[in-house]
């Protein structure tokens, strides 16, 4: 992670390899005064390391859509936590519906569905 990073926003799947991917080492490499934004799953961010970085003033703030265990340290003005509802909008639901319809059509034509997580994907008929 370059030390020039002014903000960090990454979207990871939650897995063993991404557990606490944002940790003490990651946070130490980020430019002081940066923001951490996590709209992914809880568990991607090491809450203890994040709290320490906020308390030391190394981060300007953080926005989290979910945390493993919120604590009093995360009740600061420069911290925003939502109850994992960041994707719940009319626009996102319309987009999800359109994607499902498109993927059904693609499957019917024998094509690869878009945004397949479990690649390599093999069509079964």
Q: What's this, in brief?
A:
The chain has 125 residues and is α/β, with parallel strands linked by helices. The chain has helices at 24-29, 47-55, 90-108, and strands at 7-9, 34-38, 59-64, 79-81.
Reported CATH architecture of the largest domain: 3-Layer(aba) Sandwich
The CATH homologous superfamily of the largest domain is named NAD(P)-binding Rossmann-like Domain
Number of helices: 3
Number of domains: 2
End-to-end distance? 44 Å
* Net shape: elongated
Give the beta-strand count. Answer: 4
Q: How are helices and strands ordered from N to C?
A: EHEHEEH
The portion of residues forming beta strands comes to: 5-15%
Q: What ranges have pLDDT less than 50 throughout 5 or more consecutive residues?
A: none
How can the largest sheet be summarized?
A: 4 strands, parallel
Estimated radius of gyration: 18 Å
Helix content bin = 25-40%
Strand order of the largest sheet: 1-2-3-4
Name the CATH class of the largest domain: Alpha Beta
Q: From the 3D structure, determine the CATH topology of the largest domain.
A: Rossmann fold
| Average pLDDT | 82
The structural class is alpha/beta
């Amino acid at each position: 992670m370059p030390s020039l990073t002014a903000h960090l926003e990454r979207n990871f799947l939650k897995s063993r390899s991404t557990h606490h991917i944002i940790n003490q080492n990651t946070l130490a490499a980020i430019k002081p005064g940066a923001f951490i934004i996590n709209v992914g799953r809880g568990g991607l961010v090491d809450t203890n390391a994040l709290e320490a970085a906020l308390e030391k003033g190394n981060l300007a703030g953080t926005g989290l859509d979910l945390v493993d265990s919120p604590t009093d340290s995360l009740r600061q003005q420069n911290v925003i936590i939502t109850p994992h509802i960041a994707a719940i909008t009319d626009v996102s639901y319309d987009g999800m519906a359109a994607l499902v319809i498109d993927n059904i059509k693609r499957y019917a034509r024998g094509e690869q569905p878009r945004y397949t997580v479990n690649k390599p994907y093999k069509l079964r008929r």
